[in-house]
Amino acid sequence: MQRWGGLEKVSENGLSTKLLITEQYARFLDYNLCTGGSVGRTLQDISTALSTVSSSIGSCSASGLSCGSCDTLQVCVPDASTGGFKVATKLQCSTSFPKAPYCNSTLNTCSTTPAEECVSESPSVSFACTSDGYFPDVSNCSRYHYCYGDTSYNYECDVKYVYSHEKKMCVLQKLATQCVTMKCTAGLASQLVTYTADASIYGICLLNQPTILFRCPKKQAFDATLGTCQRTCSGAGKEVDEEDCTKFYECYDTTTVGKYTIKHQKCPTGTGYNADLPGCDPTFVACTPQPSTSTTTTTTVSMMTTP
């Protein structure tokens, strides 16, 4: 077996198939080593990821490497039965090269960015939607998701851009702190993590499974210690309870900037809270509650939390 000249795969019947790797792909493998890989692991991952597949995985127009899908690299060989070409093996980019999970159809290699035809409004099967709206990606700050119903869509930022959850779009990265991800502790069966760029976003990490993200109701933030969404204050003062307009919240300053002590209060019988006063008002006795559009998720199982 040559160092980067080829890979050898032994099939179940004991036959060996020599797979030629182009010089271009060889340079990519060298790049993988320079970014944290190892010769043994790289070859082992590739050998593990290679498997025989049918010609339906992707079209083959010539011998060599090509993209079978947005995240799969395939090897095409001559097909004696048709005189054309067929798929001999495939390689899942995300499995063998986590830092390059996409297949670039222009270069015909695994890449850090997807091909143009694979970007934007393509349904995502890997991100589970729990509510409508924008969500950050758990592990990649240059990627984000938009959920509508049960369908999620992936979006990828250009090079040197990162996702801003505040603006719900990609922005030019000027500081390292603009790249915000959520980290799950390896080896733990389950845990709760918060998204530091927006405390209303939190996730449940499951062992060997994708992290599932949730969104707290409006004006609430996730408390990792309690494991539930809690009311927040935008400033010192009084705020109406959107779910019961006969009640309100009193927010008091603390010694920590941006932190408040919150008390949930109820207006006297026959009154409702009038935000224009602000205070309880007899003319608001027939006030109409404004129910939240989201549902608070309460975790009752015991989990290790990561703030």
UniProtKB/TrEMBL annotation:
Q: Which residues form a coiled coil?
A: none
Q: Which Pfam families match?
A: CBM_14 (PF01607)
Xref: PROSITE patterns: CHIT_BIND_II (PS50940)
Q: Which SUPFAM superfamilies match?
A: Invertebrate chitin-binding proteins (SSF57625)
GO CC annotation terms, alphabetical: extracellular region
Its Gene Ontology molecular function terms? chitin binding
InterPro entries tied to this protein = Chitin-bd_dom, Chitin-bd_dom_sf
**Could you tell me which residue ranges the Chitin-binding type-2 domain spans?**
126-181, 230-289
Write down the SMART domains for this protein, in alphabetical order.
Answer: ChtBD2
Q: What is this protein called?
A: Chitin-binding type-2 domain-containing protein
